[in-house]
Amino acid sequence: MDKLSEPSKSIKDYYLELIEKKRNTENNNFLKDRLLGIKDLLISEEEKYIQIARASNLHTLTEHSRIQVPKSAKEVTKDEMESLYTQNLVSKPNSGEIGRDVYDYLRSLALDKTCPYCSTTTAKTLDHYLPKAKFPMFAITPANLVPSCRDCNKEKDDKFSNKETEMFIHPYFEDVNSFTWLKSTVEDSVWPISFKYEVVVADDTNNILTCRLSKQQELLDLNNTFNDKANRQFRYRVKSVVKNYKAGGIDSVKRFFQESEESCRNAELNSWEACMYNALLNSHWFFSTALNQLEDRYGI
């Protein structure tokens, strides 16, 4: 999972321009006036959000459905804030609208244009870390908008629990790349070579973090995704494995796996591909039985 840079843009940089074309009629209960009325509130709540997120305490925030206009009996509804996002922030590509500029900027924060949740697929959308349906206050807050792929965004959807053990890792504010937590194993006696992924923290001193990682992997079905990718990736590498085995025996194969793992971990500590090579290195069955059969089993 990738750690991303915090957005440098904030609501105050674009809010007035974002709502500039909003209509202000009796039929919409003078929407533009009401949106203007919550400008300072949105900015102050954004600042609080960032402070709380940096402390990994977003689970303490309370869901809401309306935003009270300060010093007024008027409100901005959940639907109106959702519309502000869908109609004004997610405008058409190359439209020249400020909303699209902000949208594209936030997507650009993804490393190598890749979704930080799965680290496998292009980040073509923005995910509301706190769902806009439950936290409309943050519907257009940059710090709450995370670049993501369509699959992760769809699976995550509006699912939210304020239990600390079930909160997603926030790519802008939390870094889980300083320790290993993803593990893979080779399934013994299974052909073609197959892998199994799970969350395992060696030094389990932070049970809450382990629970969060496990819950996130489960909800996004990432363990199965990684299983499938590793199975395919090994098939792509099997010819090189056989070549190394013929040239230098088991030691040569182990060096190939070690170098490959190190290269992958250098780029991403918990890379599914790095875990795949580690699983092979630690599989007694692979070296004692499978290695001799690869050429026949894979038709090389």
Give an account of the 3D structure.
This protein is mostly helical and 300 residues long. The chain is built from 10 helices and 6 strands, in the order H-H-H-E-E-H-H-E-E-H-E-E-H-H-H-H. The chain has helices at 15-18, 31-37, 39-54, 78-89, 98-107, 150-156, 207-219, 222-267, 272-281, 284-297; strands spanning 66-68, 75-77, 125-128, 145-148, 182-186, 195-199. The strands form 3 sheets. Strands 1-2 form a two-stranded antiparallel sheet. Strands 3-4 form a two-stranded antiparallel sheet. It has a two-stranded antiparallel sheet with strand order 5-6. The longest helix has 46 residues, at 222-267. The radius of gyration is 24 Å and the shape is elongated. The chain starts with 14 loop residues before the first helix and ends with a helix.
Tally the beta strands. Answer: 6
Q: Give the overall silhouette.
A: elongated
Low-confidence stretches: none
Mean pLDDT: 93
Nutshell version of this structure?
46% of the residues lie in helices and 8% in strands. The protein has 300 residues and is mainly alpha-helical. It has a two-stranded antiparallel sheet with strand order 1-2.
List key phrases describing it.
mainly alpha; 300 residues; 46% helix; two-stranded antiparallel ribbon
